[in-house]
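Sanity check

After download, print the first record. It should look like this:
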Amino acid sequence: MAYSLSPWLKPRFFITGTNRPLAGGLMYTYKAGTTDPAKTYSDDSGTENTNPIVLDSDGQCDLYLDDAVSYRIILKNSAGVTQFDKDRIASLGSTQVQSFNSIAALRLRIGTTIANAAKTLGYYAAGDGGGNSFYWDSTSTATDNAGTVIKPTAASGAGRWLAVDSINVNTSQFGCAGAINDNSAFGYAIVYAQSANIKLTIDKPIVILGSAWTPITLTNHLSLTGVNANSTITVSGTQVDLFVLAATKDFKINGVIFSNIATLFSTSGASNYGTIELNKVKVSNSKSVCVTGASDITLFKLKDCIFDTFTGSAYYVFGMSAYFKSAVVEGCRFTNLNSTTSSMTALCLGRTQLVDQLLTGNYIITDNYFYNITADGNTAGEVHAIQLYGDTAVISNNIIKSLDRINGRQLGGVEGIYTKTINTTITGNVLVNAGFAEGNKGAQINVKGAQSISVGTKPLGINTVVSNNAIYATDTEQRNGIRVSSDYTIISNNIVSNHTGSNPIGVAWSDGENAENILITGNVVTKCMFSVGMIWINVTGKCIVVTNNLLSGIGTGSNANGVVMLDAERTTNTNNLIINNNVIEGGNLDVGIYIALASTNVLNATIKDNKITIDSGNTTGIRTHLSRILSGEVVNNIMKGVTVPYSNKAIDTMRFVGNTNNYASVDAYAAAPTTGTWARGEYVYNSAPAASGNVGWICVTAGTPGTWKTWGTIGA
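Expected structure tokens:
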């Protein structure tokens, strides 16, 4: 007898899922395919081991095997819990292992016993990387799959060569070799991987002949893993779809490179799908990745992927009209994406209708790069980097640059970020030339929706935060920065620079809905040329606050304003309009702050502590409304360079106190106020001061109009 080292030499075993030794572990040894004990040895002279072998404190043992025996080994921990069960194990010196240069050579040999073993040195030829180890099963009638199950040519019934390791398999072991047509080999590998529910390794380039390929319908889990730069799948000739997802399973790809595909996968037949996950995947020189829908997806995840150089008639790279429980897109690159139609979107997720909204969403889109997304058509269409529909979205720290529809820039929506989600946070993104104005409707960031959860039939847009984004333009194309149609909204601490359009920042609903709780604060608008307003509010409702913004730009003259509120198509009055502590600087403005009401009223309007500096043009500082502002105040605003401090001064309903233009008061009164509500201690200046007269009047008892006395005696 001869005893040789086991394939593990002096094996060492660890507790499953840890790096801790399996101290005291129990190794049971049997004859292959049975539970009949088989002897092992501690040295090459035949010193017999116990059965089971007890591992030492380092999880090790001395293990020599009988060269004439094929083993089954079951390893358990000290508590008797099985760690693994391995079959068809032969010693390094086994005389039963037959070597073959190829699978073709293996097919010419029939095994003799269950213990017979074979090793292929390659798939087509020795050394080509497709080698494997097999054992003979005389009772097997399994279907030959050209990889893990090989039927000898001469076998008319039972008897198959079966791969010793049917779990850790690669595409080379199915015959994929980067030839002009790997269709059959790759098909066999995919069918086996999903039927066995194992991870399939792409270890060599694979070439699919497009004209001969039929998309594979996946009815079970599929996991593909690349191991190096050669883990590529390329379609030769006609672009084709690769996979169709058709069942409640998982689809995962890691580290694989795809090229010249039409669509990576379709979900049109998927229902209640599990996880779709792409990690470190690259797709290039292709048409799209997924452009169809599904009934339900538990998790859609893209991580550290690259999608580069897409062209063709597809409207989307990812156009997944599906119900999502959640979606995460992180650290990906979407670059050089072009459609020959009028529309192209890199990432479109969710369904568009109100009835679908609460069933769709929970998105995290973060740390991605979008660049050069274009469409060539000359009709109305849409171009987006990110387009989301659903319940909840967080869009953060993305860079989005250079979106264009070359032949129709103001036709339809061209927007870097476009959402119709109920709860939306858009923060920390950088957008450069990533959207057009389309009049007042478009912007680089466009948040759409209806008034509230109980109103309307359109997808809702409420609970919105747009903050800390940097939005630039480098040309004179008509572009808007931020446009929001959403209740309960904060637009804060953004910078919008160098825009030429109607409004750098706008809050507007196109269909007459009303707004509630809008806060616009801490934004910087600079070096913009605009035709409507640096901050444009076309809503009415409750609690609209514009405060602490720095606005610097050049208007186009007529109807170009710093902060402007309109009520087009509105029927509801506004309660609590506050425009405070803003710095407005520019030239060729019509009005610095303009309450341009046509059909609704405002109750409690406050315009206070703003700085308005005009360096050119015939400009009104503050324009109110003679009859539609029911109560309010214009207090302590400092104006410089304006031609007319006030227009439509609503003196009967508003108090004008402490305002100046070019350091002189513009709130002088001919007599003590007789209208309005005043607090004790408030004062007004005399519009006609004279020797021995008074500087003005002071309120000594609060009221409407209160009790007033002269103050500040002027010398004779």
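If your output differs, re-run the checksum step. Summary of this record's structure: Residues 114 and 191 are 27 Å apart (CA to CA).
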